[in-house]
Specification:
single chain
Length: 141
């Protein structure tokens, strides 16, 4: 999944003004459907996944002008998966057994983790591209 997340964030940028912060949704007290559905409803992300991993994790591109942020970092991609949820398309391989959702942001893992912990979230942090892209996720990975 990390390789896919790298491809999601490269080349995507926009200024962070009038940002829509996803901090509260990344408190890991939600589920993939409740995280993704409002973003689809308000057209903050493109409805068609830009990538569907073999394990069925769906990655969505932020819609033009949506200016999504997470803990002060620009969001390059939003991802999620839950079994038997029609929002998520099935991949070609074995789907994840657990649900997951999150974002890929521009920033180093250490700086992202510091802000996430300062905000009180217990979300997982995974470096995607050293010093450049980091995933913030809840649930399986």
């Amino acid at each position: 999944m990390l390789v896919a997340l790298v491809s999601l964030g490269v080349g995507l940028s926009s200024p962070v003004c009038n940002a829509y912060a996803l901090d509260a949704q990344l408190n890991c007290q939600s589920n993939p459907h409740d995280f993704i559905a409002p973003l689809l409803d308000d057209q903050s992300i493109d409805p068609k996944p830009m990538r569907i991993e073999a394990n069925s994790v769906n990655a969505f591109r932020p819609a033009r002008g949506s200016n999504l942020t997470a803990f002060g970092f620009h969001v390059s991609a939003v991802f999620g998966y839950a079994q038997n949820d029609p929002i998520f398309k099935q991949g070609s391989g074995q789907p994840l057994q657990s649900s997951t959702y999150g974002v890929v942001v521009r920033g180093s893992a250490s700086s992202v983790e510091a802000r996430v912990r300062q905000a009180g979230s217990n979300a997982g942090i995974r470096e995607v591209v050293p010093l450049f892209l980091t995933a913030i996720y809840c649930g399986g990975h």
